[in-house]
Design brief:
The complex is a heterodimer of chains A (about 575) and B (about 240). With about 575 residues, chain A is an alpha/beta fold. Chain A has helices at about 20-30, 70-80, 85-105, 135-150, 215-225, 255-260, 270-275, 285-295, 315-320, 325-335, 390-410, 420-435, 440-455, 460-480, 490-515, 560-570, and strands at about 5-15, 35-40, 55, 120, 130, 155, 160-170, 170-180, 185-195, 230, 235-240, 260-265, 305-310, 345-350, 355, 370, 460, 525, 540-545, 550-555. The longest helix of chain A has 25 residues, at about 490-515. Chain A is globular and about 65 Å long. Classes of the chains: A alpha/beta (about 575), B alpha+beta (about 240). At the A-B interface, helix 3, helix 4, helix 10, helix 13 and helix 15 of A face helix 1, helix 2 and helix 3 of B.
């Protein structure tokens, strides 16, 4: 066994080195656990570096009336009340403490005049709530966590991809992975595993997400027997770049609107007046994305099929100071000076509200020993996430997952590894090398993206999604017959062949869940069911691996506590 | 549609050669788009690192027409038209495969640096003026282009004695942090060999984040080292005290 692959053993194995994974690792280390962190990329490159606008936390540094209750209320309302209310409560209560902690680990936020952390306005937040560093908040966060973790002494396995979770009698026991550099296998044995692998944006062609976002964590957890939840809720961020073609989908931070940016159509009309006159540009992302999409669809779009977003009424120096990376991004990639004229923007696939179903307090999934946090987990954001609530989610539930995972590791004995699972995982991973003359995995990926964009996008119909399901079945068949050229050494074609499977599993879960939810709620908009349904508001869709097929059922949501109902009923 | 010729290094630590690909050109296209086209249609096993494709993660560094750059920010239309575009891996680090190099040395050297250590009794009240200067260093996306052009590393192979501009920027971000309470001058002098830098500013020129690495990070750090270790008055005092004891 030892000749075929190396083996590493940890109390806690964290999969994913973005904000949630690093925060989980730090917490588990603090509990005395031995911790390994596995990352598909180099340390510090995870998607968290792309988070721009800020961390939502009711510190009340700028608006003194803010507090956890308004933050809870905004989060629930933004999520169209489908959120796990206990998670929304914990998140709102604990976020300020998590931000202060980050500052004490060296993060340098922009300051108020009296020397505290500055907070800015963002869509769906009643108060100015986002702690930020210009428009590169995520970079500050990941660097701070990275340095802290390295200093505390976790073992990092960089450029290492997990292909299968290993189980031992109904509990999670570790994972099988390969080194991207050599293609050789490596086995991790762990008492607890924390899944912090982010989302699934790469199943759509127009996305703000990087190559890593292939839904691995959700698919791996599903395959190992854990349940997924709310998979129909995929967030399309209203403002991605639309021109030139190569940059399509790259994120334009909501902070542009937070700092006063105005949306207009081709005739110069400030169209948000028609869709949400009260909140205008700072409406929730689902509403703004649909509004831009509708303007374009009805012929009022810009030259390249988007809307104009204009911040040039603000002083040029202010724009460069508060939105430096947007300034450079447009100047260098689109030849647009945003201090002088408008940007062209349109919706881009950005975030997965659904994911691995977890318990609010411990972040434990339905598979004992498997925990999940951040975008890979479901619950906090309900049917739509508010901007800024993701970074706070990573910190609050990353910490909780790390804590519970370390606790769990203290309580259980070391698991046994099953040789059969390992060799089955190896053969499956290598199968694309065995086949000759098959299709290029990249071609299958392109077709998957086309299906998801055209049939399971911002606006959905039953008919389209039925068609999507039959297309996905064909794609699955094609994916099973891809072949790859070259050796196992750093071979992206091979990596794609493996990741395709995750993307197809998650795409199917999204489509099946979206098809049965016969209503429109948050990011899930059905042309054939345009209204909110009170009945569906009481239910979550749960997906699980039912033998060879995908199981789907509805579960009634637990009744919200009376005191939380009162908070929710208050009008602000 | 217009077509470009892109010559990409294919090989590994044992060697390799440039391979020519024809790539269709779209408006606003960047070099990373061309590499993705090659992966998707012509050579699926072409090894390239990339993540955000928006200049925020620093993964896709390479030498384009001999100049170290982020390929995601290098516009095809800004390069000489009608001529082949050459894309080579970073020279200062060992090739793993094609455009992917082994940059693990940077992570190893980073561990020599004393982490952020808050002053005792810090009240965490500080002002924008205090952070403006330090935030510049914290913009670093770790693309390692500065390391790649630094002749102390690239030409003189001083990997054992020297930290390189990226690590000096990191130290500057800690040393000038308004709440930090420790000194890192000893590690700058001994572990990171800051004295070897002779301020040619090559690093500053290639920084995609426009960090003034030499002027704002390295020179002030060199001054701190000089003040502490080479100030003649301090030296004489130490000498006398040393002789007396």
């Amino acid at each position: 066994m030892s000749e075929r692959f190396e083996t590493h053993e940890h109390d806690v194995l964290v999969i994913g080195a973005g904000g949630a994974g690093l925060r989980a690792a730090i917490e588990a280390l603090g509990q005395g656990a031995s911790v390994g962190v596995v990352s598909k990329s180099l340390l510090g490159k995870a998607h968290t570096v792309m988070a721009e606008g800020g961390i939502a936390a009711a510190m009340a540094n700028v608006d003194s009336a803010d507090g956890w209750k308004p933050h809870f209320r905004d989060t629930m309302r933004g999520g169209k009340l489908l959120n796990n209310w206990r998670m929304a409560q914990l998140h709102a209560q604990e976020a300020p403490e998590r931000v202060k902690e980050l500052e004490q680990w060296g993060a340098l936020f922009d300051r108020t005049e009296d020397g505290r952390i500055l907070q800015r306005a963002f869509g769906g937040h009643t108060f100015r709530r986002l702690c930020h560093v210009g428009d590169r908040t995520g970079l500050e966060m990941i660097r701070t966590l990275q340095d802290r973790g390295v200093y505390m002494g976790f073992d990092v396995y960089m450029e290492c991809t997990i292909v299968r979770l290993l189980t031992d009698g109904g509990r999670c026991a570790g994972a099988l992975a390969y080194w991207r550099e050599t293609g050789r296998f490596v086995v991790f044995k762990a008492k607890s595993v924390v899944m912090a692998t982010g989302g699934i944006g790469k199943a759509w062609p127009i996305t703000s997400n990087s190559w890593e976002y292939t839904g691995d964590g959700m698919a791996l957890a599903y395959e190992a027997g854990a349940e997924l939840m709310d998979m129909e809720f995929v967030q399309f961020h209203p403002t991605g770049m639309v021109w030139p073609p190569g940059v399509q989908g790259i994120l334009v931070t909501e902070a542009v609107r937070g700092e006063g940016g105005i949306l207009r159509n081709k005739s110069g009309e400030r169209f948000m007046e028609r869709y949400d006159p009260k909140r205008m540009e700072l409406s929730t992302r689902d509403v703004v994305a649909r509004s831009i999409y509708t303007e374009v669809k009805e012929g009022r779009g810009t030259e390249h099929g988007g809307a104009y977003l204009d911040i040039s009424h603000q002083p040029a120096e202010y724009v460069k100071k508060k939105l430096p990376s947007m300034y450079h991004q447009f100047k260098e990639l689109a030849d647009v000076d945003i201090t002088k004229g408008p940007m062209e923007v349109g919706p881009t696939c950005h975030y997965m509200m659904g994911g691995i179903r977890v318990e609010a307090e411990t972040a434990q999934s339905s598979l004992p020993g498997l925990f999940a946090a951040g975008e890979a987990a479901a619950g906090l954001h309900g049917a739509n996430r508010l901007g800024g609530n993701s970074l706070s989610d990573l910190l609050v539930f990353g910490r909780r997952a790390g804590l519970a995972a370390a606790q769990h590791a203290k309580e259980v004995s070391a698991p046994n590894l099953d040789e059969g699972q390992i060799s089955a995982g190896e053969s499956e991973a290598l199968s694309a090398f065995q086949r000759q003359g098959g299709e290029n995995p990249y071609a299958v990926h392109r077709d998957l993206q086309k299906v998801m964009q055209s049939l399971v996008g911002i606006f959905r119909t039953g008919e389209d999604m039925q068609k999507a399901l039959s297309e996905l079945a064909k794609l699955k068949e094609r994916a099973a017959h891809t072949s790859v050229e070259g050796s196992r050494m750093f071979n992206p074609g091979w990596h794609m062949a493996i990741e395709l499977k995750s993307m197809l599993t998650v795409s199917e879960a999204v489509t099946r869940s979206a098809l049965v939810r016969q209503e429109s709620r948050g990011a899930h908009s059905r042309i054939d069911f345009p209204e909110l349904s009170p009945e569906w508001g009481k239910k979550n869709n749960i997906v699980w691996h039912d033998g060879s097929a995908m199981g789907l059922r509805q579960e009634t949501r637990p009744e919200m506590r009376a005191e939380l109902k009162e908070i929710l009923a208050e009008d602000q | 549609m217009a077509e470009a010729t892109v010559k990409v290094f294919r090989g590994n630590k044992g060697g390799g050669q440039s391979v020519e690909f024809k790539v269709p050109v779209a408006p606003g296209m960047v070099v990373l788009d061309a590499l993705h086209y090659i992966q998707g249609h012509l050579a699926p096993d072409l090894a390239v690192r990339w993540n955000c494709k928006a200049g925020k993660c620093g993964s896709c560094s390479a030498e384009v027409n001999g100049r170290p750059r982020l390929t995601c920010k290098t516009r095809m239309d800004a390069l000489p038209q009608g001529e082949p575009i050459t894309v080579m891996p970073l020279k200062a680090f060992p090739v793993i495969k094609d455009l992917v190099t082994d940059v693990s040395w940077n992570y190893k050297v980073n561990k020599k640096i004393t982490p952020f250590t808050p002053k005792a009794g810090a009240d965490w009240k500080f002002y924008q003026d205090d952070v403006d200067r330090v935030q510049e260093f914290r913009k670093c996306i770790e693309c390692f282009l500065c390391q790649n052009v630094c002749h102390v590393l690239r030409d003189h192979d001083k990997y054992e004695q020297f930290g390189g501009p990226r690590l000096f920027v990191r130290v500057a971000g800690l040393e000038m942090h308004p709440m930090d309470g420790v000194s890192r001058t000893k590690v700058l002098k001994d572990g990171l060999g800051i004295g070897l830098c002779n301020i040619t500013k090559c690093c500053t020129e290639v920084c995609p984040e426009d960090i003034h690495i030499t002027d704002n990070a390295i020179i002030p750090l060199k001054e701190r080292v000089v003040d502490q270790f080479y100030d003649p008055l301090v030296w004489i005092v130490r000498k006398i005290r040393g002789a007396a004891s």
